[in-house]
Structures are given as C-alpha cells and as structure tokens.
TrEMBL record, chains A, B:
This is LacI family DNA-binding transcriptional regulator. Transmembrane segments: none annotated. It comes from Luedemannella flava. One of its GO terms (molecular function) is DNA binding. Keywords: DNA-binding, Transcription, Transcription regulation. The keyword DNA-binding applies. Residues 15-69 form the HTH lacI-type domain.
Amino acid sequence: MTLDAPDATARPSRATLRDVAQLAEVSIKTASRVLSGQPNVREETARRVRDAARALRFRPNRLARDLRSGAVSTAVGFVIGDLSNPFYTQIAAGAERLLREHGLELFIATSDEDPERERRVTLTMLERRVRALFVVPVAEEHAYLVPEQQLGTPMVFIDRPAVDVAADSIVLDNRRAVREATERLIALGHRRIGLVADRTQVWTARERVAGFADAMRAAGTEDWQRWVHRAHDVATARAVASDLLAGPDAPTALFALNNRITAGVVNAVAGLPGPPAILGFDDFEFAATLGISVIAHDPVDLGRRAAETALDRLAGRTGMPQQIVLPTRFVARGSGERPPPKAGP
Amino acid sequence: MTLDAPDATARPSRATLRDVAQLAEVSIKTASRVLSGQPNVREETARRVRDAARALRFRPNRLARDLRSGAVSTAVGFVIGDLSNPFYTQIAAGAERLLREHGLELFIATSDEDPERERRVTLTMLERRVRALFVVPVAEEHAYLVPEQQLGTPMVFIDRPAVDVAADSIVLDNRRAVREATERLIALGHRRIGLVADRTQVWTARERVAGFADAMRAAGTEDWQRWVHRAHDVATARAVASDLLAGPDAPTALFALNNRITAGVVNAVAGLPGPPAILGFDDFEFAATLGISVIAHDPVDLGRRAAETALDRLAGRTGMPQQIVLPTRFVARGSGERPPPKAGP
DNA sequence: TCTGTTGTTGACATCGTTGGCACTGCGGTG
DNA sequence: CACCGCAGTGCCAACGATGTCAACAACAGA
C-alpha cells in the first residue's frame, strides 16, 4: 500500500473513452466510433463497447468533443437583460422551441441591462464557441462583435437593431404603433397626455417617444416634450404616475411605454375615482381582467423569428443583414377609450 | 509566395494562443502566462504579448481551457421547467445574482416540464462539465445523477426535493401554508371550498392538496376529495373555475394552488356579481391591484438560498444533504376574506 | 572560482475526443 | 497468382489551452 497511489484514495474520477475502450478490449477510436454512431463496426464489437460504456456510466466530455471538432457545438447563446422580465423570457421561450426542433440547445445568460456586462457575457458565450448568438441588446456599441461575426457565428439582434455590426435583427414597428395609439387618444379629445417612457439610452424608448412626438406635432402640440416622463422600473413608474395625477395640470391620459411601466401606472391609478385614460405598450396576463387597452405583440414570435433567421444563416444563407419588422396590434379594452372629462378650463 | 500558404486564401480563422505567441515572438507558454495573469514575465515581454493579442483580437477558447484544467469551469447549470413562467425565472434571477458575485455564470436550459427532456438537458449540462447544477425537477426519478454527484458536482433541487439521489434541496412549507389558509376559509364559514390544483405528478401539488385535506378533515369534512379539481395551465384553470361556479352546489370559495391557476381563476371570476372568496398560492404583480389574497413567498430568495447551498458545497462543506424549508406568509387583500353568502340551504 | 538563489523563458506532455491514414483479412477479378 | 475493394480495426496527430520541469542568465555569498 504505497502512499502515493492515487487510485487507492477515495477519489473516483469520471470514466473516459479510454476506460471504456480498455474494458471492451478495443481501441479508443473504435469505442468512439460506436458511441458516436459511425459505421463500420462489427455488431458484436459494438455491443461490447456499449456494455462497457453502460457499466462505467460513461458520459462523453462535450468540451473535448466540441474542441476537437471545431465549431459544431449544439449550444446557442442568448443574452437577455433580465430574467424576471417576462418580455425577455418569452422571447427566449419562442426561440428555444424552434431551436430545439433542430437539435440545438439554448443557453441563456443575463446582462442585467448593463452594457459592460452585456459585453462580458456575450464574449463568454463566444469563448464557449456557441453555434449562434442572440442578443437583446442594451449597449449601443457592438463593434467588438465584428471579427467574431466574420468568423462565421450568426448573430441576431432582437427587439433593438444592431448599430455598428452588420447583423440580422428582428424588431417591432414601435414608432408607428405609438403614433397611431397616440392619435386615438387625440381623437378622443385628449391633449394632456402623460407619456411614461424608459431611459433614453434604450432604442425602443427613443422610437416610441418619436412616434408620440409625430402624433402630438401633427395635432399642433409643439410642447410635447413637457409631457414625456421617464421611469425604468415598476416602483418609479408608479411614483411618476401618482405625482402626475396629483400635480397641477394633470394629464387626462397616461401612456405607459413598456410592460413594467404599465404595471406601475396601473398600480398608481387603481381605485382612483374618475381615472385617466390608460394605454400600455406590451400585452400582459391580467390586461383583459383589468380592462387595460394595450399595444399588443407577440414576444414568443419575436424569438421564433430570430431563431428562424439564425437557422437560415446556419443553413448557409449569405448576403446583407436583414431587418425584420413585426407588426403590433391595438387591443381596446376600455381603459384607452375613456374620453377626457367634459368640464375643462 | 508559395501556393499552399493557408493565410493567403480568404479563410479567416480564429486567432489562437499560438498565433499570438508567434507574433509576439515568444513561446506559447509565455503567452499563456501573460494572458492568464501568471507571474514571472518581464514587463516588456508581457507588453509585447498583450499587444499581439489585441492586434489579433485574440479570445481564449474556454473549451480548451476548461478541458485542460479539469472541472474548474465557471459555468453553472440551471434546469427549469418553462421560461415563460415567472416563478421559474425569478428563482433563476435570485440564483444568478449571488453566483455572479462569486465569478460564476448561470446557464439556463428548459425541460419543458417533461421528465425525459429534463433528463436529457441535465445530462447535457453535466457533459459540459458545469461546476454545479440546479434543478427545479419535474421528474420523480433522478438515480442517474448519483454517479455524477459522487464525482463532485454539487446539485441542488429547488422547490421540490430530490427523491432517489441524496442532494440538497430548498423547498417551501407547502403543506402547512395551505392547511392554515384553508383553516382561515373554514373559520369564515366556508364549507364548499373549490380547490384547483396542479397535476398529481407534481410534488408541490401533492403537498398542497395534503394541507387542504388536513384542514378539511379537521373540520369534519371527510368528503374533501370531491372539492379537489385539476388544471395545469391558465386556460384550463379558467374553464374549471367557470364550470364550478356555474354548476349546482357551487363553491363559496376558490383556492388556486399556483400562479398560473390563480390567473385562470381570477380571469373566470372577474366581473361576476357576488364573487366567491378567492385564495391563491404564489404572489403576483397585479395581486395587490386586484385585491387577491395569496400565500406569498419569495422565489428570488429560493434561488438565492439554492446558490448559497451550492457555494457552500463548492467551498468544501461535506456531510448529509440539507433540506431547507422556507416560510410562506399569508397576505390578506380582500378576496380571501369574503364570507360565504348568508342565505344558504 | 564555485555554489546557490531568483527570475525569465521554452520544450514537452497532457486534458478527452475525433479525423486521417494505414493495416489486416477476405472474397472476387483478370 | 497478383491485384483490388472493402469492412473492421488501431495508431498517431490534432484541437487549444495549461502544468511540469528544466535550461539559462544574472547575481550574491563563500
């Protein structure tokens, strides 16, 4: 009993192909052939190998496999902003479903809506040699992805387009959707419309505010900027809405530009007598129950289309990056159809 | 200018450590030392290497690194049932936050609530040599994980305990929570309590129904079984609730045993005159706005505790698997405090 | 001058797998 | 009988990184 015998100590180690080959009394290569389904192995030999693998509970090391065989990993990376926002996770769910049908696995990591973290997790994904990459970007700067893309990793940007890298993207028709919804409010007689938008850094927020501006200007309201307010999370949105309604010259309608803001606004308004009109961007589970009118779209479809695009590229499609614009639809449920109070100054 | 110079053809390939070393005119090993921050390299040499790496846009290949250095990957696997259920994603968000602080990255894959798929994605995670593994299990059978666990990969089961593998788990005090909530309904005078529970296969559903049975039996209701109904998604839950309320001997209270079922029930009841009392398991964003009383708990904390447990194991804690039971709290918001109608048979 | 120490560097083996190629029998062909 | 094709198998290199160890220079102390 020597002191340095490593196998004597209680340190079981994972069975490798070598162990399987040894037990089956074949070469490593033959074992590999059997276990990865290559032809030209006698059935009896194959059986021996399979038995050995089972006995040793052999699990191939994907790291080694993927390393050896270049970029044929089955992992696809998905970088989203925040796991607790259903908007992101539904996109992921949509992409996942389609990818799975093609034998690919979706791995999700979060950027926490921080550009620097987005960059880090994205690069980590690439270091792991994912087969394709999906990003719902927060950062404005993606030049660092250019070389990676040239190396052949398909990349698809979701919900927000790629700026300084020529990649495919799937977006919503934000500007038009908000313009048209704002026009509806104006047609109902609203002029004091409180818009609650996400941070300016976010592309969708900018687009949506632009749509609002389009409609307001068309209606002759040049000081539309004073009606634009900012919030990024539910609590802030709630506070902003409460303040607006309590303040002088309170808006007769509130327009919340994403799901979290809508949650805050709905919360603030709940139970108020003579509530303002309310519109939200993004549909949500309780919108029907609460009677909230929204600009609806299908995040699952957003993800599905992104997956389609990536699969196309993997199948060999080349050429200019595509930008797919998905439609939205207005769903009237009551809250957005309330006219402003009759008596006014 | 030879014909076979590979660099002459338009085949850009990813720069490796070798390329960097060549350009910097050092050995591969020295380049490795510089780029992975090992000591004992002359500053001038180090600078040359860093410059070369930058010029070639070198990105290390994690596959190779992780392969060589054994199981020291920074990836942690998380297997959840469904990306579009906030319950799961919030758990993931909680775990992610803590893991990140320890330099670990969370990779999420979904089982689609299918035991066979759960098994497959779990094994894939292990084949990728994750440092630790989290599972919100659907399957009842996890014996296949035993050898992997013995090899040292910490595993934590979340929301539902591990059955045939001795792993740590974090669960809620389901049975007690439901028993006590049911007792409240009984104290209010309810006897006809319609319970809408998830499938029997799901451990939490069984526990929660057991809690209901405890309370009903204690109150002398031996035929509690006839009040138990099943639903797995929002639509079914809604239909079940509608049927119950329309049928003869309609319940005076509805108790929904998870977030999706609650959504369906709330939907079905919305706007009804003289609505039944409603209780839900799992809190949700609009519960306050809608005045729905719930058994609340913190999924984010569930994830955080799971991460803590795994980190402990990684830090070397040995010994028996722990089962951590997290408390729930009852949040009264009105819907659960409605007494049954006075006039009765 | 010899020996020991310290810092810097590179040659080589290695992780677990797959690809390329060569080798062995064996039956069929000219 | 030399030759070919072909199924079945094994040896060796390779993927891209890191670990081990030794070589070497510079310098201090005896």
